[in-house]
Amino acid sequence: MSKKMQITLTVNGETQELLAEPRELLIYVLRERLNITGPHVGCETSHCGACTVTMDGKSVKSCTVFAAQANGAEITTIEGIGSPDSLHVLQNAFREHHGLQCGFCTPGMITRATKLLEDNPNPTEEDVRFGMAGNLCRCTGYQNIVKSVLAAATELSAAKEAAE
Amino acid sequence: MSYLTPTTLDAALGALSGRDTEAPVSVIAGGTDWFPAQGERAYNGTLLDVTRVEGMRGVSAVGTGWRIGGATTWSDILHADLPPAFDGLKLAAREVGSVQIQNAGTVAGNICNASPAADGVPPLLSLDAEVELTSTRGVRRLVLAEFITGVRKTARAADEIVTALYIPALSAGARGGFTKIGGRKYLVISVAMVGAVLTLSGGRIATARITVGSASPVALRMGDLENALVGADLAEALERVTPERLAALSPISDIRGSAEFRGEAVVEAIRRTLTQIMKGQAHG
Amino acid sequence: MSDILALAPRFGSNSGQSLTRRDGVAKVTGTATFAADNHPDGLLYAVYVPATIARGTVTHLDVAAAKAHPGVVEVITPENRPPLAGDPDSKPFMFAFRFEALQNNTVRYANQPIALVLAETFEAATEGARLLNPLYDAQQPRMGLDGDAPFTPESGGLGLPGTTVHGDIDAGHAASAQDIDVTYETPEQYHNAMETHAVVAQWNGDHVTLDIPSQAIVMQRGAFGYYFGIPPENVTIRSPYLGGGFGSKAIINGPQILAILAARMTGRPVKLMLSRDQMFGPSGHRGATRQRLRIGIDTDHRMTVLDHNSLATTSTFDTFVESAANASQGLYAAGALRSAHQGVRIDAGTPGPVRAPGEAPGSAALECAMDEMAYKAGIDPLEFRLKNYAETEPGTGKPYSSKALRDCYAQGAARFGWAGRPLAPRQMTDENGMLVGWGMGTALFAAPMFAAQARAVLRPDGTGLVETAASDMGQGAWTALAQIAADSLGLPMDRIEFRSGTSDLPDAGIAGGSAHTATAGGALHAAGTDAIRRLAELATGDPDSPLYGAGNAGVIARDGRLHARDDDTRSESFADIITRAGGAEVEGKGSASRTAEASAAHAMYSHGAVFAEVKVDPDLFQIRVTRLVGAFAAGRIINPKLTESQLMGGMIWGISFALHEEARFDQRTGRIMNADLAGYHIPVNADVSGLEVITVHEDDPHVNPLGIKGVGEIGITGTVGAIGNAIWHATGTRVRHFPIRIPDLLTGA
């Protein structure tokens, strides 16, 4: 039967050592074993993006990443981006501009958006729409999601300029 | 079930050699398709993750050509500094799933899946890509057209790993293009797609390599058309794209489009790809 | 006098403000707890085994293999399934559907549960489910709208009559100078909320606690009690957030019941999370429809008849016939009006309400048919609709409680730039040679009310507490209802505590029918008003109060103080009044519903007008919606930001209906071939641009005391037809089914 493997994950800056079965997916390790429930499962086939996390600096869909694949990786989930007491600029923008309805897709959306803005700090609307196309919103709040990301981009750029 | 993460090619090949079929070994890289493809089957066997094998990842110039390592992701392709002949491959890379999937999914994985709708295959065929297969028995190279043998079928033996793709030397000035047609704007499984590489001389086509995907079980090079295009300027080239020169295709009717539509769409998609390249509109 | 007038000018009014969502922080930080986020100690995971045939019986399950898998604790099949107190095939209440909970080995549709596997880990339960390897005795399934002989149902949808006739239909046909007779088809569609169905069930003796997304919390408490043979108060439902519902989470389904049963059987908490493909089966869907529309007009372009017949798929074991033809009731002033429904029983799960049930497919067909009639008559489609504008409800003659549809048409058309649109198709192209088309449709959705209760408490410290078991599926109940409650108590938002989302609170009714804000909000308003009345009695009866003798009708609540209505300088804080009266909390109770008299007196609808621009590639026929302008009148708007978001969401559902969504059944096996988000297309971010919403001012003194109609569903209506009409206008090809795909345009080219 399944041989368990010792794996190490650094999740939101905290080192987690655990025994994982080969068949375990990263999303379920995060949610069911580490109680990190911000990333959600929406489809299990990597189409909806609700499970998006950042792995070694890149956006991935954790529902199709084996825990073993993530061995040694640094993982950032929505919980590592900001907290209720200290919101990330993107989190505040999504809140302020109603870039959410039911909120189920929101952690994945924001996690993806953090990378989008790191890679492209001054995106056009088109850049945002394509860069976020792997994250589905059924409610569907796409207009305000785009508005939120663009607003955050503006704010982040202004802050960066002010710092320089 | 077990999960192997060898760091050397020897270890990876050793894990594959001499395995029985009772406990098959699945070679995975990004792994993005493995779970969805399982369906209702019970899990069995071993997963061999090749992404940690030294030297498997990245794009490099080798001799007069290029080597794409077997664990190279689509994002790696997008970010690589490559000549304009690769523009079609880069355009295809953008169409592979979403950014998240491009970050995990690999070029080699795309060809090993051998889906008729695989985005990467038409541009790779137009680049004359060759596939390097390695096992404990040795190394062999197949041209991509021989590697993909049918719908979800390849020439890979159970003990082989796709260690790299090779793109042979490209004429200076070769340029690539890619067109995909689908109902939704993004995340689309395509109705039809075209990958092309042209070399131009004085505004006329000197050589043409045109591949059509999604309109036959395996993506196909359009040899008759390629020959006919030589010497044509843009206007002539567009006229020479006729259904008769695409007779090798056998488009099917399915949920995404009728055979008739696919046939017409292919003609138009080729014309657009030619226009894209000859007007210099392809940007990777 | 309506309470609106009393409320509107109040200082510090929360309603009408674009307040930021109160659940926003929780949702952007991942701290909002959805059902499957719960993880009680000792948890077992349940995975259900879906049938891979649509009709027949299960002949074998390899229970031994599943049980032998490490970590598997129990396998539940019809052989060992413990009894339920309530029969799954009974229909004890309204909104109760028959469901499959392993009552026998019959398969009635693909993806029906045929076993449940319980294990220590999700992975082991998943693997155990695969190892059951079911064998079947399969029969040829009946599929599609021609799968069986049609029957005439008693009702179309939930409780609506199967056939409604006003006037003399034959005479209406006979009187027409011109007519059309067209048939439209719409496919099976699935809700596909981003959050799949999930439940975490924990028993403690005879009491069960359920973390479960619910659109009808208190109603479902009673239903679960019924099926498990315990009193409703022994069921606690916690549903603070739903990851979307769209109707599916108003209905109890078999897998949920099985998970709760499994928790009782094993004595351990059980978590069940449906996979995406399992959302295509046991939790309802929109049935396919085939709608025939016959419209006749006289020489003045007035409709002599609107005759709308709909055939819809339902299941073999329960009846829910999509009430599509009812979309023709209530909108256009036709001389004679008929809406008739037929059903066809096929081997699929039972349909149920899906966002804008009946209205979405019905409006799609009606608005396209109206466009066809207008073109045949040679007049502008908007002019044609205005020509047949109903001043009173067609057929019944009832006055509308309010109807600002003319304003919707005017504002929407102006914003879109409708004037000057050529009548003939294929007249416009853009700078890139794309074919451009413009289409429009009228949006209509009834403004019903359910029944709700609420409680409001004023505390000695001057703060308020309000309670009702409302459901926030994303629409913003946590915010909009709190705004209403705060106003009713005369308190700012930060001085009220709003409790909601659990079954121990007063019944807020069902979160559906676009009626939740009106219904639950009405109850909250009544409860707050009651609390203020009691507080006013304390103050005005107390000689030590500056308000002494003002009479309880002589005071108003504002910003935590009661003021004399005729002398603003006479006032006292809530805290002072309560403290002097002995410090006991002041409690108010309220309820809301619509009386039969009110229903009889007025026709009540939200209205809107949607204008669409599409661009179609002349060679490849790729279709893009490039602009969509919707103008809606929906009574009083509590929170413009939330409202706009709801309307836009509905319009994007309209794009989805028009161009993307369709479940495709394999005719041989009865399985859905695209039961995932790869094959079942919904729009992505890149598909949506140029969307604008206008909310048109509308005062409604009759619809309910707060003047609120609904906005959750109307956005789909009108939009689908507008897009279909725009595609025709761009290409000249009239496609009479949805979704409209590239190949559909080829045949007409």
Automatic annotation (TrEMBL), chain A:
Sorted UniProt keywords: 2Fe-2S, Iron, Iron-sulfur, Metal-binding, Oxidoreductase
SUPFAM superfamilies per record: 2Fe-2S ferredoxin-like, CO dehydrogenase ISP C-domain like
A GO MF label: oxidoreductase activity
Domain 2Fe-2S ferredoxin-type: 5-81
UniProt KW Iron keyword: yes
Protein name as it appears in the record: Carbon monoxide dehydrogenase, small subunit
Taxonomic source organism: Puniceibacterium sediminis
Automatic annotation (TrEMBL), chain B:
SMART domains assigned to the protein according to its UniProt record, in alphabetical order: CO_deh_flav_C
InterPro entries: CO_DH_flav_C, CO_DH_flav_C_dom_sf, Diverse_Substr_Oxidored, FAD-bd_PCMH, FAD-bd_PCMH-like_sf, FAD-bd_PCMH_sub2, Mopterin_DH_FAD-bd
Keyword field: FAD, Flavoprotein, Oxidoreductase
SUPFAM superfamilies named among the record's database cross-references: CO dehydrogenase flavoprotein C-terminal domain-like, FAD-binding/transporter-associated domain-like
GO molecular function: FAD binding; oxidoreductase activity
One protein family per Pfam: CO_deh_flav_C
Domain FAD-binding PCMH-type: 1-172
TM regions (residue ranges): none
PANTHER family from the UniProt entry: XANTHINE DEHYDROGENASE SUBUNIT C-RELATED
UniProt name for this protein: CO or xanthine dehydrogenase, FAD-binding subunit
TrEMBL record, chain C:
GO MF annotations in UniProt: iron ion binding; oxidoreductase activity
Highest taxon listed in the record's lineage: Bacteria
Record-annotated Aldehyde oxidase/xanthine dehydrogenase a/b hammerhead domain positions: 29-140
Pfam families referenced in this protein's UniProt entry, alphabetically: Ald_Xan_dh_C, MoCoBD_1, MoCoBD_2
Lineage, top ranks: Bacteria, Pseudomonadati, Pseudomonadota, Alphaproteobacteria, Rhodobacterales
UniProt organism field: Puniceibacterium sediminis
Name of the protein described by the UniProt record: Xanthine dehydrogenase YagR molybdenum-binding subunit
Classification via InterPro entries: Ald_Oxase/Xan_DH_a/b, Ald_Oxase/Xan_DH_a/b_sf, Ald_Oxase/xanthine_DH-like, AldOxase/xan_DH_MoCoBD1, AldOxase/xan_DH_MoCoBD2, AldOxase/xan_DH_Mopterin-bd_sf
